[in-house]
Amino acid sequence: MDQIKQLREKTGAGIMDCKRALEESDGNLENAEVLLRKQGMASAAKKAGRAANQGLIFQYIHGGRIGCLLELNCETDFVARTDDFQQLGRDIAQHIIGMMPQYVRAEDVPTDVRERERRIHDGSDEEVDRKLVLMAQPFVRDPKKTIGGMVQEAIGKLGENIVVRRFTRYELGEAVVGDGSDSGDDGASE
Hints:
CATH topology of the largest domain: Tetrahydropterin Synthase, Chain A
Radius of gyration: 18 Å
CATH architecture of the largest domain: 2-Layer Sandwich
Shape: globular
């Protein structure tokens, strides 16, 4: 029973899921954790198409000079009120302050920006994404995880689709560093 408790604390998975994972991995705690994470990723993929119209707006202000607003959505207000969801939102908002992503997803990066960054850094799309794309960036406090991976884990744990909808980062005296959307314009229409 001790292993089930340890696995549950590490992964947030249900008791029966932990028990099954331990049985399938012949009692190996590390293999059971990997199995549960894989199952969580599969679960997240199934939930990706579901509407996420609830959630919260998170704000984080660092030293009164840098700020972030983040819209994090889920399927129900019940999940939005959980400690896990709220911690995820705080973590992502703090990450945005430190790592300065400019877009939420790789597909949001305009082709000309991607080409320019590739030439500047003589790198691959993966390198460009790690620099510019929130979901591809290693988490500032645990580089073994990406923000996208953290969201996937939360989906597996909370059982609902979770979507980083948009963000804005402000720095006193500076232009907006990234608005986390794909428009990139100043709101004026043509």
